[in-house]
């Protein structure tokens, strides 16, 4: 059963707001991938739809067996004074890539040092700021266009990112960004955080149902790279990617089928020190990972169609052409079992047959009419 990725993000966000510990605000949720995400595509920012909107950059999310692009879009903050900290993919010590969900807060926290562009240069946000309950925009990195915006200013940003330049989409691991949390970002992790808005959640869900946004289809160059408002994937203001990103290739450069696996261990978020609560369980024959809610595997049967592989929970290896793993992780082989082989029972020995002796020949009968000589 397909589990929409937005549902996993929503669960993580709800866990953030319900948590009594602010340090757990950006934990990695219950999904882990062994293939790095593709580079961020190169695209331009659509014109802002009006005052009060804040830019939420696009990112790669994980579906059943592939990454899909969630277009960047303009969103309204849940309340004045809040800023958006984007989510990011991070490489863990367990050898998997974990998604750290984005959130709203009074200041921008750690987002892996990823250069999402348009003010999100890897640290903080230079695209705008709150001034007396009204959001002011930095025209140097914001596409104000022809919209009448009175609260604007100009602040030069090094390596102007109106078009994204550095396209690596993950932190850590081979080719990943190496940025560590700054003291200010560590402090921001302890602030009260707010979950993504309903429109942001719906926006991601809509992206997960559009096959054209999957990396295996668009090869890292989605036709909808950014949109003017959440959920708007066609019409005026929709922006296509200009080119495939030039960062670490990730899923686009592996040459191997995408795969996901569960580690059975929690991973630590470097910004908060909080550890994730669970990971997906993998069917090793297909490399497909499915999860229901954070820390819980809701898959009932994951079936492989290629050659038999090793069961990750038991280490046992199947012998048939198809392998199946149940929700408990116990693997079974669909090939007919072969029992012990027995030699055929030998036939009984032949019985010796002895012929009865023949009686002696009888003397010829005497002729009663013949006299003896």
Present the secondary structure layout.
Elements: H1 5-18, E1 28-33, E2 53-56, E3 59-62, E4 67-70, E5 72-76, E6 83-85, E7 88-91, E8 97-100, E9 103-105, E10 128-131, E11 134-138, E12 152-153, E13 170-171, H2 183-188, H3 198-208, H4 215-218, E14 226-227, E15 281-283, E16 288-290, E17 301-303, E18 323-326, E19 331-333
Parallel strand pairs: 5-14, 7-13, 11-12
Antiparallel strand pairs: 1-8, 2-5, 3-4, 6-9, 7-8, 10-11, 15-16, 17-18, 18-19
Helix pairs in contact: 1-3
Summarize the structure in short:
This protein has 373 residues and is mostly beta strands.
Task: Describe the structure in your own words.
By secondary structure, the chain is mainly β. The chain has one domain (1-290). It has helices at residues 5-18, 183-188, 198-208, 215-218; strands spanning 28-33, 53-56, 59-62, 67-70, 72-76, 83-85, 88-91, 97-100, 103-105, 128-131, 134-138, 152-153, 170-171, 226-227, 281-283, 288-290, 301-303, 323-326, 331-333. The chain has a four-stranded mixed beta sheet with strand order 1-8-7-13, with helices on one face. Strands 2-5-14 form a three-stranded mixed beta sheet, with no helix packed on it. Strands 10-11-12 form a three-stranded mixed beta sheet, with no helix packed on it. The chain is elongated.
